[in-house]
Recover the amino acids of this structure.
């Protein structure tokens, strides 16, 4: 009786939990304009006023939104556009053009994309798309025709703005800014970039035409706010179907926020990076551990997730190496110590290894040279060592100069955790003089 | 529907009836009547001015309906010399579909609407007129007759101004009634004639004053929804004319003697109510010979005339700032105004004058014309005098606070009239609705037609006659843009770089030099090159545009020979050789590949041509036209040296020594030494620019303007920057203000904030706001730099420092991956300059900020 009841309970739970996970994952992964904005109210107001003036008064504007990666630039603009489009008199009157520097890698492609997004191509027919020059003059003509009061404002959103600055002559930027500074079709040019030196990238003529408005997003919040964001990001919305469960879940999140170890984890995470995207990553990992048998997030989940996040990738690779490969790495470390970071070649490493095997080793088998060579090549494939020059055909592989891409501390840490590491190898690694 | 004979079905021949009246100013022959002979039948239709006519349109069933205002012959028009000016009526089916619901009832079959829309082109080809039609005006309470025997009667009850249906105004209504009763010939301004007969002692100056007066009254009547040529306006003139002769002159002299402000005010009123912009300076030029004459006759009049002359550009400027978005409508407006003027002038020769009067007229007229048709040398002097005058006026305008006050006094009146015409302005579509040449109603204002008809591509209709309509455009907005409501918004609109300034203060000398250069080349029919340099934002292109605008006006006034103006911009080309394509297309409308275009242009410029029109070519951003062989620059500078070319090339670039730096000797030698450099604006100049833009708008504290001018002058002298800062400051002022209805002045504090926002480096705030690990990584870099004494370090070196630092500060041990992420994060912000991350431990790191800045930012 009781088992059956618990089973049905489990079913409900599974259903609910998958819903919870869907809601939260959407929140973490999409820069959806439905989530809340944090600590950027001033910037948001500036942007929305600017857009409104373009949409309603037909005033041309240009603005750059600058902030490090993950600081919410795209979220900000999405929010602003969403609010703008909700205004009745604006929604019909505004055209949007979204460009991305990673997609529109040159002006030719960008122009085509603009024409497509402005729905001008059905006016043009196919013919004009013959050449880049015709395309440009066509688009300029089209934009020139309008004036402030009568034509529809266009909002240009240039994602990865800095990449547009690398286009030849910055033709696109010049023309967009020029239109925005002359009495033609009203334009709002909004650039999103993470580079602080973006103005130095602009050519002087382009720079003069840019209005020098900059909106900085700097993640300028402290840890208490970070905690609040954490809580808000994990809480279920009020419109979630099962009220009882929502209450329970949110209560557990509240507990989680007050938990000391969770705070510690968050503090560590906050110290490394303030951006919300990395927080989302952390929460995502923690969320994945929620199952029917374990329906609420716990502090342990958070700690686990954090450990996962802050793991050193190279140390993980070292854990999976064979003893021979470990020995080679230790030999390289000693060579580095002796020759002060000078590059080494296979022969040197092999000699060092030979010394160790002959004098001190008890457990390590004296491998033949081709076997050692194979292990050496494996290390190269794992990119733990790197050749100094390009591999050419006529250089002998034994004598190619190499560098180790592991730090001493990394090697020592990895060795400590290495399962079943022979003691003599460990001693060899710790000894400062390799042959003693 | 009624059947109307159209030209497609029967051939018709058009001929003038009666003797022409010559309009001297516009070179028109004006006629009162036209006869249309339909081939095959012997009937002849006589069409007279004032009648209602049917005009051939797209739809044979429903030809356009209009009232004939004027018939004239225009020699300047190449195809159809017989022209007519009409007042349009509109059928219900011609009203845009989206607006039809505004009527609120079902329209009657024979109902038409008075088309009260000044932007519509009223100048048509007279040969498109089909025949008469009878139009009956109905009062607002009259019912439209439903059972119609005669289908050719149309009914007018409402007027349509693209926004709303309105009942006909009483004046209009009266006019209709009158028209139906008497012959339209009685409509002629008799008063004018009588006046000119009766007052032999009157000089041309008085005449000019009267003209202004009359313009004033007509423009006054324009404010009513009726058309300029209403009987009411004419009646007024008649009244004026009937007053005793002596009284008029007394009045005039009195007005000019004791209250120059009064006549001035009249002018302003007339200027402000008529929204024309271009026509104004035109008038100024054309009236100048007439105004010159009185200088001999009497000093009072001359001073009066001068006053008028000076006052009018001033008010004209006021006007221009107020309606900056009004470009497309102007030309059409101008046309609707001209018939009045034409009527005035034309009435003179037809009058039966007493012998002595005729003599006097004849003696006077050559005098007046003399100014216009003397040797080019004199014109040259005169026009430069005019420009000098202009500059002087500007200076006077800026310097003379007294006159400013005077203008301030009657500013409210101007604003009232402005707001009354605001509705009209906001609804203006980008193009006139009815075009003159083919009479196809181009409904560009409704976006559907321009978007859905793929046949209107520039390629498919390459005829030079229609490219204007064929080029697609961004669709127009459904709701009109809002006009500025508050003082700050108004100021912001004026401070926008795109706002066309009424004058270009602080560039008088440069303006004069360029003007003289181009003008002398135009007068001599030779060519030449000029190189203009200056840092961005110093008004190079704006000044050249202003010069061209003035020259075009002068050309219209026949002060200089007419010329062809072409503009190319190096930055608007995809590739240097495209410049040939652009020039050719703008010159002839042809399309060709770059090489072919170069050949065609060379042929055109290097061989003798029949047409003697000079071409003025503006090449903006010249440095972009640089190629390895420099053939483009060579050609551009070589063509003007040939006599046949008649090409004046103005080139603009940023660097002063561009010819020496990048051009080969043979190119720079052809460019010649006519150089001009625009210096960056000084703080007082920037201040002057701001003040002139913000005239009559009290939005800024004086100190604030001075502050921003000094700041920008110290940084770059870029006028664009200056305007942008001020614009931003108005926003800040608006945000910071608590009460939204009465925002205060923009203060120094607001401006400082704006300047900070724009110019302060964001590196320090970025460092301050970065995470703990990022900050300690920066510290580690500094420590490593100090240790090694170099400005560069590998990641490995910094990492070991970083680990040590973290240990000291009690931070958890940073793993390599975390540190790498931190490093690349700082690199993506460009706080650090890093190599590509495939170098891993060996990637080299540099600071992109000075070490002192980092230290400052890290010091809490």
């Amino acid at each position: 009786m009781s088992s059956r009841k618990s089973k049905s309970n489990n079913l409900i739970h599974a259903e609910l939990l998958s819903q919870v996970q869907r809601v939260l994952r959407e929140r973490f992964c999409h820069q959806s304009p439905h989530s809340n904005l944090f600590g950027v109210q001033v910037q948001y107001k500036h942007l929305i006023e600017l857009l409104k003036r373009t949409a309603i008064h037909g005033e041309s504007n240009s603005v750059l939104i600058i902030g490090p990666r993950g600081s919410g630039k795209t979220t900000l603009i999405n929010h602003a556009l969403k609010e703008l489009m909700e205004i009745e008199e604006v929604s019909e009157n505004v055209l949007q053009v979204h460009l991305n520097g990673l997609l529109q890698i040159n002006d030719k492609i960008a122009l085509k994309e603009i024409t497509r997004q402005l729905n001008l191509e059905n006016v043009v027919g196919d013919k004009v798309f013959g050449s880049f020059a015709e395309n440009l003059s066509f688009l300029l003509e089209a934009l020139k025709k309008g004036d402030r009061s009568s034509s529809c404002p266009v909002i240009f959103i240039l994602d990865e703005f800095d990449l547009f600055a690398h286009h030849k002559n910055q033709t696109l930027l010049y023309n967009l800014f020029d239109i925005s500074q002359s009495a033609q079709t009203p334009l709002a040019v909004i650039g999103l970039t993470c580079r602080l030196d973006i103005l130095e990238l602009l050519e002087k003529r382009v720079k003069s035409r840019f209005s020098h408005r900059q909106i900085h997003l700097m993640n300028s919040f402290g840890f208490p706010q970070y905690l609040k964001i954490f809580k808000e990001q994990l809480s279920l919305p009020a419109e979630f179907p099962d009220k009882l469960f929502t209450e329970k879940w949110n209560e557990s999140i509240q507990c989680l926020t007050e938990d000391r170890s969770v705070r510690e984890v968050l503090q560590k995470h906050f110290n490394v990076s303030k951006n919300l995207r990395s927080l989302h990553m952390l929460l995502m990992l923690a969320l994945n551990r929620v199952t029917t048998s374990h329906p609420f997030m716990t502090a342990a989940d958070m700690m686990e997730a954090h450990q996962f996040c802050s793991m050193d990738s190279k140390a993980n690779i070292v854990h999976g190496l064979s003893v021979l490969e470990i020995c080679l790495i230790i030999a390289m470390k000693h060579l580095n110590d002796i020759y002060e970071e000078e590059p080494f070649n296979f022969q040197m490493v092999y000699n060092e290894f030979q010394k160790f095997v002959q004098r001190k080793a008890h457990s390590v088998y004296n491998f033949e040279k081709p076997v050692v060579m194979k292990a050496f090549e494996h290390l190269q494939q794992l990119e733990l060592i790197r050749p100094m020059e390009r591999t050419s055909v006529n250089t002998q592989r034994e004598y190619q100069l190499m560098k180790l891409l592991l730090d001493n501390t990394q090697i020592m840490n990895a060795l400590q955790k290495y399962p079943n590491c022979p003691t003599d190898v460990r001693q060899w690694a710790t000894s400062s003089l390799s042959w003693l | 529907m009624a059947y109307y004979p159209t030209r497609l079905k029967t051939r018709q021949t058009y001929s003038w009836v009666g003797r022409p009246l010559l309009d001297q100013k516009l070179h028109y022959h004006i006629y009162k009547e036209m006869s249309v002979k339909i081939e095959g039948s012997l009937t002849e239709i006589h069409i007279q001015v004032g009648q209602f006519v049917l005009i051939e349109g797209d739809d044979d069933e429903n030809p356009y309906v209009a009232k004939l205002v004027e018939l004239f012959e225009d020699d300047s028009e190449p195809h159809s010399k017989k022209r007519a000016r009409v007042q349009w009526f509109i059928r219900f089916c011609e009203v845009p579909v989206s607006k039809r619901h505004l009527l609120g009832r079902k329209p009657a079959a024979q109902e038409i609407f008075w088309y009260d829309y000044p932007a519509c082109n009223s100048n048509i080809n007279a040969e498109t007129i089909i025949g008469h039609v009878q139009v009956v005006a109905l009062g607002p309470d009259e019912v439209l007759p439903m059972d119609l025997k005669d289908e050719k009667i149309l009914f007018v009850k409402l007027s349509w101004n693209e926004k709303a249906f309105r009942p006909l105004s009483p004046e209009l209504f009266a006019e209709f009634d009158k028209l139906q009763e008497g012959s339209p010939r009685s409509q002629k301004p008799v008063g004018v004639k009588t006046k000119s007969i009766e007052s032999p002692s009157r000089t041309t100056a008085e005449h000019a004053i009267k003209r202004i007066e009359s313009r004033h009254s007509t423009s006054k009547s324009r404010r009513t929804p009726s058309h300029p040529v209403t009987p009411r306006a004419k009646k007024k003139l008649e009244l004026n004319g009937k007053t005793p002769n002596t009284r008029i002159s007394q009045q005039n002299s009195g007005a000019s003697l004791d209250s120059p402000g009064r006549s001035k005010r009249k002018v302003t009123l007339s200027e402000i109510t008529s929204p024309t912009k271009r026509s104004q300076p035109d008038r100024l030029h054309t009236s100048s010979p007439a105004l010159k004459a009185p200088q001999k006759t009497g000093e009072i009049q001359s001073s009066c005339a001068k006053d008028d002359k000076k006052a009018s550009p001033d008010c004209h400027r006021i006007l221009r700032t107020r309606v900056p978005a009004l470009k497309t409508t102007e030309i059409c407006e101008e046309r609707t105004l001209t018939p009045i003027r034409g009527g005035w002038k034309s009435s003179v020769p037809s009058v039966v004058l007493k012998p002595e009067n005729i003599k006097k007229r004849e003696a006077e007229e050559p005098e007046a014309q003399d100014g216009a048709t003397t040797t080019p040398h004199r014109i040259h002097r005169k026009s430069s005098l005019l420009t000098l005058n202009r500059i002087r006026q500007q200076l006077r305008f800026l310097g003379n606070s007294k006159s400013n006050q005077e203008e301030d006094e009657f500013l409210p009146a101007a604003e009232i009239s402005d707001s009354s015409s605001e509705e009209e302005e906001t609804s203006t579509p980008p193009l006139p609705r009815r075009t003159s040449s083919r009479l196809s109603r181009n409904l560009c204002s409704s976006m559907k037609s321009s978007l859905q008809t793929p046949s209107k591509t520039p390629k498919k209709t390459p005829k030079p006659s229609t490219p204007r309509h064929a080029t697609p455009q961004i669709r127009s907005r459904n709701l009109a843009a809002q006009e500025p409501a508050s003082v700050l918004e108004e100021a912001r609109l004026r401070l926008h770089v795109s706002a066309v300034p009424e004058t270009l203060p602080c560039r008088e000398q440069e303006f004069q030099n360029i003007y003289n250069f181009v003008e002398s080349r135009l007068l001599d029919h030779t060519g030449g090159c000029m190189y203009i340099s200056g840092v961005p934002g110093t008004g190079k292109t704006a000044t050249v545009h202003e010069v061209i605008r003035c020259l075009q006006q002068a050309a219209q006034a026949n002060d200089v020979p007419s010329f062809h103006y072409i503009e190319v911009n190096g930055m608007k080309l995809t590739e240097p050789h495209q410049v040939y394509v652009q020039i050719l297309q703008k010159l002839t409308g042809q399309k060709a590949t770059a090489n072919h275009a170069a050949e065609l242009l060379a042929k055109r410029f290097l061989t003798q041509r029949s047409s003697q029109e000079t071409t003025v070519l503006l090449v903006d951003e010249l440095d972009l036209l640089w190629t390895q062989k420099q053939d483009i620059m060579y050609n551009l500078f070589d063509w003007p040296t040939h006599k046949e070319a008649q090409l004046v090339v103005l080139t603009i670039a940023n660097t002063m020594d561009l010819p020496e730096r990048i051009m080969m000797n043979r190119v720079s030698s052809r460019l010649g030494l006519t150089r001009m450099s625009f210096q960056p604006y000084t703080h007082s100049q920037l201040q002057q620019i701001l003040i002139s833009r913000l005239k009559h708008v009290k939005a800024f504290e004086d100190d604030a303007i001075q502050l921003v001018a000094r700041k920008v002058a110290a940084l770059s002298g870029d006028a664009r920057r200056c305007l942008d800062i001020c614009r931003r400051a108005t926003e800040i002022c608006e945000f910071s203000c608590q009460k939204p209805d009465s925002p205060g002045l923009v203060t120094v504090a607001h401006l400082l904030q704006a300047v900070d926002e724009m110019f302060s480096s964001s590196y320090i705030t970025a460092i301050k706001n970065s995470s703990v690990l990022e900050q300690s990584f920066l510290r580690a870099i500094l420590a490593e730099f100090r240790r090694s004494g170099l400005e560069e370090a590998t990641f490995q070196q910094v990492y070991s420092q970083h680990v040590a630092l973290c240990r000291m500060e009690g931070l958890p041990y940073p793993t390599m991956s975390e540190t790498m992420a931190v490093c690349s994060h700082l690199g993506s912000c460009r706080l650090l300059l890093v190599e590509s991350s495939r170098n891993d431990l060996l990637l080299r790191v540099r600071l992109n900020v000075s070490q002192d800045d980092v230290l400052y930012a890290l010091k809490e």
Summary: The mean pLDDT of chain A is 85. Chain A touches chain B through 94 residues (CB under 8 Å). DSSP finds 22 helices and seven strands in chain A.
